[in-house]
Write a structure and sequence with these properties.
Blueprint: E1 8-11, H1 15-27, E2 34-37, H2 40-47, E3 64-67, H3 76-85, E4 94-98, H4 103-111, E5 116-119, H5 124-141
Helix pairs in contact: 1-5, 2-3
């Protein structure tokens, strides 16, 4: 698989949530440059070009990370911490896309540098709209840090 020009790194362990999000991104036209990983360890391997991603160009970063909070192996908070601590990645926008609407989770994510925190809507129509808006804003409208 080619990892050239990946625009969205999508980190989600739930197959159902992943399928719904990918479908929403497909319908919004953001599917062709999406790479989905199933846990935080794989996300870090992708970002730091190690493990299965050792051949990926370390100078090509995604434009956006969609990150679930509660995952096995390495949590979303741990991934967020590693991204924001790395000089090459710290300006990478990270949108927490999670089912947790707990105040402490939200506060901690923002304190650690998350750019946005979106609670997955239960209603599929609202979810599709939320994902579409994420793509439109972060991929089409937002200017990357220089």
């Amino acid at each position: 698989m080619s990892y050239h020009n990946v625009e969205i790194l999508f980190v989600e362990d739930s197959q159902d949530d992943a399928a719904l999000t990918i479908r929403a991104l497909n319908k919004s036209g953001f599917n062709n440059k999406l790479h989905h990983v199933v846990n935080g360890a794989e996300a870090l391997d992708f970002l730091f070009c190690r493990g299965n991603y050792i051949g990926r160009n370390p100078l090509e970063f995604p434009k956006l990370v969609l990150l679930d909070l509660k995952m096995p192996k390495v949590s979303g908070l741990q991934v967020l911490e590693k991204i924001k601590a790395d000089p090459n990645l710290k300006s990478l926008p990270v949108v927490m896309l999670t089912s947790s609407n707990e105040g402490p989770d939200i506060e901690q994510c923002f304190a650690m540098g998350a750019n946005s925190y979106i609670v997955k809507p239960v209603d599929s129509d609202n979810f599709f709209q939320a994902v579409k808006q994420i793509g439109l804003y972060w991929i089409d409208l937002s200017q990357p840090a220089l």
